[in-house]
Design a protein that fits this description.
Layout lengths: L12 E2 L3 E3 L25 E3 L3 E2 L16 H7 L13 H5 L38 H9 L1 H6 L2 H6 L4 H8 L7 H6 L9 H8 L2 H13 L1 H11 L3 H12 L8 E2 H10 L4 H17 L8 E2 L12 H7 L15 H14 L9 E4 L16 E2 H6 L16 E5 L8 E4 L1 H9 L3 H14 L18 H13 L13 H13 L10 H8 L2
Antiparallel strand pairs: 1-4, 2-3, 5-6, 7-10, 8-9, 9-10
Organism: Bradyrhizobium huanghuaihaiense
Protein name: Lytic murein transglycosylase
InterPro entries: Lysozyme-like_dom_sf, MltB-like, MltB_2, Peptidoglycan-bd-like, PGBD-like_sf, PGBDSf, SLT_2
């Protein structure tokens, strides 16, 4: 299965390009009459639109890494970014370390705070020069100076010196995070296993309870933002299993560690300083800011910078509490999706039957066309229901190749992917939302007879594609768009469906068997 389908943690998702956008006024309902940005914290002028996908397979879990369900989830899926940066609880742990890795730590590793599993003391799997054991030890030895050196930047953000000293006092590096950041698990979950784990009867029952309990808050938020309540409830359920698996690491400690040690220092310096801004203003208390190893926190796993852009005060109490205040949580999550381009009244996509002999080279995010055009190519819904709006543009996703169901993905699916840039994660969110709404499971079967390739086999597949002249990248065992395109071209050259599905059969064909 391709890693591009797998959820990443927000930890392995880098900053996106920033484009200046003009702020727009929003009409506020009575319940959310105080829903407004806080000067200096809600920076809606910065609009990231490109994910920097990192090398670490363990790294995503919302997307970073939350071990919460979504983060967790992400990791679980096909896992490789939401950030798998999450804590050791929740889905990440449920999937046996798919996101964050569970390699035994040698005794020579440095102890971690609080009796947690220690750092292995080994070089990181990414091969990055800042992830060598020697570089990690050297940076750890300079940790106090590194943190103190961020005071001028903190002051420029309006953080008082008293608060800076108070919130950074006693901070020490959590070196176990270095193992989690560079973890490259040998095995990952198939998309059908991922969906089975996340979209289940227990989670659905809890989701319906949450929708009923907070109906007033969902009503008000839906009226203001136009964002579907079932999508918000789905994210809440998948990211943290409805606030029961939010991660247990200190956001300040995690982001400070990553700001001073390892290969993502510039990115996490912004996250650390943003966390300090949140505390300085009083939106949250330090004990509330606990989450994944990458710094994602709360029931829907906000990174500190995302909190600054999207968090709102939904009940007018002067604080934006996305951890313990359901009104703020629901309103802020909806605001995130709205600002990312959510289209009110529209769904995320449709399951479709792809006809035999279809040209799977068209199954590409860059090759969107109208639903009417897809219908002319033979695509139809498995229930033979008509499409609501044939003029809508969509792209075809075939996560299990010609052997599994196809999906026509609309604009709102792309919005969900901005929340966590993994196709499997977004598919799980959309499907779980439909089930909460009363929809049925997917109609078409998955190729459950197929097994996931191990990392060793994925590396071999890339090497064989390279030997045949199809793959131009550096084989690393991590699949993305380049690997998918290379595999499609190989499949086309031998006259089999060019669906880019990395199956054991595809590997055997490359081996010449």
């Amino acid at each position: 299965m391709l890693d591009c389908l797998q959820p990443l943690t927000k930890a392995d998702v880098g900053p996106r390009d920033h484009r200046v956008k003009k702020k727009e006024a929003t009409k506020i309902s009575p319940l959310l009459s105080y829903w407004q940005p806080v000067p200096g914290l809600l920076m809606t002028d910065f609009w990231p639109d490109r994910w920097d996908m990192m090398q670490s397979m363990a790294g995503l879990a919302k997307r970073a890494a939350s071990v919460t369900g979504g983060a967790v989830i992400a990791a679980a899926l096909l896992l490789p970014v939401h950030a798998y940066a999450q804590s050791q609880n929740g889905l990440s742990n449920l999937f046996g370390g798919i996101f964050s890795g569970t390699n035994p730590a040698p005794s020579q590793g440095a102890p971690s705070p609080g009796g947690a599993q220690p750092w292995s003391g080994e070089d990181g799997a990414s091969g990055h020069p800042l992830m060598t054991a020697a570089a990690i030890r050297e940076a750890a030895g300079n940790f106090d100076n590194c943190v103190a050196g961020m005071w001028p930047d903190a002051a420029r953000r309006g953080i008082t010196q008293d608060n800076f000293q108070r919130f950074t006092a006693g901070l020490s590096p959590d070196l176990r995070i270095m193992d989690l950041m560079d973890s490259q698990p040998e095995f990952t979950k198939s998309i059908w296993d991922y969906l089975d784990i996340l979209v289940n009867d227990n989670r659905l029952a809890k989701g319906r309870e949450v929708l009923a309990k907070y109906k007033a808050q969902f009503d008000a938020t839906e009226k203001v933002t136009g964002v579907d309540r079932y999508i918000i409830a789905s994210i809440w359920g998948i990211e943290s299993n409805y606030s029961t698996q939010m991660g247990d690491r200190s956001v300040l400690q995690s982001t400070a560690t990553l700001a001073c040690i390892g290969r993502r220092q510039a990115y996490f310096k912004d996250e650390f300083l943003s966390a300090l801004e949140i505390l300085n203003r009083g939106d949250l208390r330090p004990e509330q800011m606990r989450g994944s190893w990458a710094g994602a926190f709360g029931p829907t796993q906000f990174m500190p910078t995302a909190f600054k852009r999207f968090a709102v005060d939904g009940d007018g109490d002067g604080r934006r509490d996305v951890v313990d205040n359901p009104t703020d949580l629901i309103a802020s999550t909806a605001n995130n999706l709205k600002k990312d381009g959510w289209q009110s009244g529209q769904t995320w996509g449709f399951e479709v039957v792809v006809p035999q002999g279809f040209n799977y080279m068209l199954a590409d995010r860059a090759k969107a066309q109208t639903i009417a055009q897809w219908e002319k190519l033979g695509l139809k819904r498995p229930t033979n229901q008509p499409f609501p709006n044939p003029a809508e543009k969509a792209y075809l996703l075939a996560p299990a190749g010609a052997q599994g169901p196809g999906f026509l993905m609309l604009q709102n699916y792309r919005v969900i992917m901005k929340y966590n840039p993994a196709e499997a994660y977004a598919l799980a969110i959309g499907h779980f939302a439909d089930r909460l709404r009363g929809g049925q499971p997917f109609v078409q079967p998955w190729p459950r007879q197929e097994r996931e390739l191990s990392r060793t086999e994925r590396l071999e597949l890339q090497q064989l594609l390279a030997q045949r002249g199809f793959y131009k990248g550096t084989p690393d065992g991590q699949f993305g768009g380049q690997t998918r395109e290379a595999l499609r071209n190989f499949q086309a050259s031998i006259g089999v469906p060019a669906d880019g599905f990395a199956s054991s059969d595809a590997l055997d064909r490359l081996r010449g068997r």
